[in-house]
Every structure is written in structure tokens, then in C-alpha cells.
Design brief:
The chain is α/β, with parallel strands linked by helices. Helices cover 46% and strands 14% of the residues. Strands 3-2-1-4-5-6-7 form a 7-stranded parallel beta sheet, sandwiched between helices.
């Protein structure tokens, strides 16, 4: 391990790694020496991120998975366990944003997708990967949240309510592992960032007026490098 490659020999899993913030975090971790497992639904997009990591001298493996499928997370956990003895970093970046609408007009199908992706898959990831995280010397779990999970906002209920549950799951997990090992959990709100999800929510916004995903990637790398207290929360 060198100063420029502090994560050399470590394994990281990033969900939602095919684009935006997830891709930026994956590239930043790989640049620091981690072998990054990239997961999302879009095979082609994952391959592009993998190629960029390899071209930069990093190491990555793609694992296309639809987290909304009933056995998707279980298959992912099994595949990782069959190849690696431990998981050093888990970044939960995958999320689904339903159409912004009043509570009385929420589309049930979209709401169900948000619940499955943002809540149920999160619990499944923590349950399925916990044994691998326990085997790491100093595992780090980073969950990417949103301010609407903490502060309800009109028309954002379908998304915000799932993020509130997401935060609760991670905070409870952080308390449960606080005194039983070396796992540390952080919940990070990226804030306004130049992503496709942001453009969908704010179609009239100038993308150049908000920060690029790479800034979030750098922040997450710096956070993982330090020994933060489990349950740490921050907004970028």
C-alpha cells in the first residue's frame, strides 16, 4: 500500500455505478487503488465506466443487477462471496426518483418501484453483505441520501418518504454495529449535483450552476480515508 494508493488490496462495491454520482465515486475509489465492483441495471453503461477505470490504471469488475428483482441482491452477494473473502467498502448510491406529484396523485407503480429500490434493496444489501463486511479490517458503509428524507417538501413525498426510511435503516444498522466490530456507517447527502436525476427533478435548471459528480466522488474518498464515528451524517 502506498500513499497514492491507500485502498490498494481492498474491495469496494458501488451500487448505481453506471452513471452520475455512483460512477464518479467508483472512479475515485479505483484511482486510490481499490478494486471496485460496479453494479447497476445498464450493462453497456457499466462497461463504459469499467473501461474508463481500466484506462486510468485502476481495477474493476461489472456485476449487472436489477436491485428491484426479488433475488437480485442475494445473487450479487453470493457472487461476491464466491470470489472475495471480505468487502471493505459498500457505497449505496442506487435510487429511483418517481414523478414529482401531490400525495393524492402518486402513481402506485412508480411508488412501488421507489420502495423496492430505495428501501427493500437497501435492507437486502445490508443483510446479504454483512458477513463480508464483518470480515474486513475496517469496513465502511456509505449511504447516499437526500435532504427531502429529513425535511419533507411538497410534491416530493413519493421519493422523500423512501429516503426517510433509507436513513432510518442505515442509522439503525450503524447503532447495531457500533460496538460489535470495525464497521463504520455514514449517511451523506450529496446536495445539488449535476446528474440525470437532478435534471429530471429540475428541468429548467442550468446544469453548470451545480457541482459536478466528481466533487462528490472526492469527498467520499476523503471520508473513507479517515476514521469517522459510525452514524456520521453530512451534507456536501
Amino acid at each position: 500500500m502506498s500513499d497514492s494508493k491507500p485502498f490498494e488490496g481492498r474491495v469496494a462495491l458501488v451500487t448505481g455505478a453506471s452513471r452520475g454520482i455512483g460512477a464518479a465515486i467508483a472512479k475515485a475509489l479505483a484511482a486510490k487503488g481499490a478494486h471496485v465492483i460496479l453494479t447497476a441495471r445498464d450493462d453497456a453503461a457499466l462497461e463504459r465506466v469499467e473501461d474508463e477505470i481500466h484506462q486510468g490504471g485502476g481495477s474493476a469488475t461489472i456485476a449487472p443487477v436489477d436491485l428491484g428483482q426479488g433475488d437480485g441482491v442475494a445473487r450479487l452477494a453470493q457472487a461476491i462471496a464466491s470470489r472475495w473473502d471480505a468487502l471493505d467498502m459498500l457505497v449505496i448510491g442506487a435510487a429511483y426518483l418517481p414523478t414529482l406529484t401531490p400525495v393524492t396523485q402518486i402513481d402506485p407503480k412508480q411508488f412501488n418501484t421507489a420502495i423496492t429500490t430505495n428501501i427493500l434493496a437497501t435492507q437486502a444489501l445490508l443483510a446479504g453483505l454483512h458477513p463480508l463486511l464483518k470480515r474486513a479490517d475496517a469496513a465502511r458503509v456509505i449511504g447516499l441520501t437526500s435532504s427531502v428524507g429529513d425535511k419533507p417538501r411538497a410534491y416530493w413525498a413519493a421519493y422523500g418518504s423512501t429516503k426517510a426510511a433509507f436513513d432510518n435503516l442505515l442509522e439503525c444498522y450503524a447503532q447495531e454495529v457500533a460496538n460489535t466490530g470495525a464497521i463504520r456507517v455514514a449517511i451523506i447527502d450529496p446536495g445539488a449535483t449535476r446528474t440525470a436525476m437532478r435534471a429530471k427533478a429540475y428541468p429548467g435548471e442550468d446544469p453548470q450552476s451545480v457541482k459536478p459528480p466528481e466533487e462528490v466522488g472526492s469527498y467520499i474518498v476523503e471520508l473513507i480515508e479517515r476514521d469517522f464515528e459510525t452514524g456520521h451524517r453530512a451534507r456536501i
